[in-house]
Amino acid sequence: HSLISLSQRNLYRVNSPLCASKSTAARAAKACSYYYFAFGSNMALSTMTKLRKLNPIASTPAILPNHRLAFNIPGSPFLEPSAASVEPLTPEERMEGLFGCDADADDADSNDGCFIDEDYDNAVHGVLYKLSEEDFAKVCQTEGIPFAYRLHRCRVILYNGDGKMAGRDAMLATNNSTFDPISAAKYTSSNSKECDTLVVSAFTLRAAQTEFRRKERDIKPSRSYLNVLLRGAREYCLDGAYVRKLERIQIDPNVIGGGISELLLEVAERQESINKFFG
C-alpha cells in the first residue's frame, strides 16, 4: 500500500517544498519536491499514476486536523455533479464536533463509546504524496488551479494505515489544541506496536470561490466518484471508522449511470496495459 514505511519517514522530516541535498543519477543536485495531501479521487494510486500520468516519489496515509471534507467544486449535472475539497472548520464547527456524538455504535471500540472530535468529525483522512516539482505542477494544472481550486498550506499527521485506528492514535498522540510543529513523537498504536508520528507541512486544495466554501453549498457527489474515494481509502488502509463515514455520504440519485469517474479510471488503466503489451 504505502510507498514509504515508518522506518523511512526520517527521510522526510522537513517542510514543503523540499530541496534534496543529495544528488542522484536521475535528479539534479538540488531538485525540489513537494508534499501534496490528497483527500478525494487522488487518494487512489491509479488516479495519480495511470490517469494523471504522475510518478509519486512516496506516499503514506495522513490526517488533516480541523478541516472537513466538502463536495463544493461544481461539475457537470447528471454526469459528475461535484468534486471534493477540504475546508477549514470554523470555531463553531469545532465545538459542534467536540460535544456532538453521531457516530454509529459499531464505529467505536466497546471501551471508547463515541469518538471525540479530533478523531473523525473534525479531521480529513487522506494520502500524503511526495512529488517532483514537475509532477506537482501537473497536479495544479489538471486540478484547475486557480479557477476551481486554490492551493492551501496545511500540516498533516502521518500514520501507518492498518484499517483500524492507527490514524486516530497518531492524532491523539499530537497536541491538537495548539498543533505545534513537531519533528517526531512516539505513540503506541491499537496493535501495541511503537511507531513514529510526524507532522509535515504540505499543500492541499480548497475551493477557489469563497461563495462555495459554506457547508450549505455542498453538492451531492456521484456514486462512481465516491467509489473512487473509497478505493483509495481502502488501498491505503485508512481508519475503518473513517471509511465507514465515507460510505455514509449521500450521493446524487439523478446522475446518469451513477457517474463516469470509475469508467475514466478503468480506461486509463486498460490503456496503460495495452501500451505495455505493445511497448
Short account of what is shown:
By secondary structure, the protein is α+β, with helices and mostly antiparallel strands. It contains seven helices and ten strands. Strand 4 and strand 5 (80-88) form a beta hairpin.
Description of the molecule:
By secondary structure, the protein is of the alpha+beta class. It is 26% helix and 26% strand. The chain has seven helices and ten strands. A hairpin with a 3-residue loop joins strand 4 and strand 5 (80-88). It is globular, with a radius of gyration of 19 Å.
Main sheet strand line-up: 1-2-6-3-7-10
**Series of H and E elements:** EEHEEEHEHEHEEEHHH
On the 0 to 100 scale, the average pLDDT is 78
Low-confidence stretches: 1-26, 99-118, 176-195
Strand tally is 10
The major pleated sheet works out as: 6 strands, antiparallel
**Whole-number radius of gyration?**
19 Å
Secondary-structure content class: alpha+beta
By DSSP (H or I, 4+ residues per run), the number of helices equals: 7
Instruction: Indicate the multimeric state.
Output: single chain
Report the principal-axis shape.
globular
Helix content: 25-40%
Chain-wise SSE layout:
Elements: E1 18-19, E2 32-38, H1 45-51, E3 58-65, E4 67-76, E5 80-88, H2 91-99, E6 123-132, H3 133-142, E7 149-158, H4 166-172, E8 185-188, E9 194-197, E10 199-207, H5 223-235, H6 240-247, H7 261-278
Antiparallel strand pairs: 1-2, 2-6, 3-6, 3-7, 4-5, 7-10, 8-9
Helix pairs in contact: 1-7
List its traits.
279 residues, alpha+beta, six-stranded antiparallel beta sheet
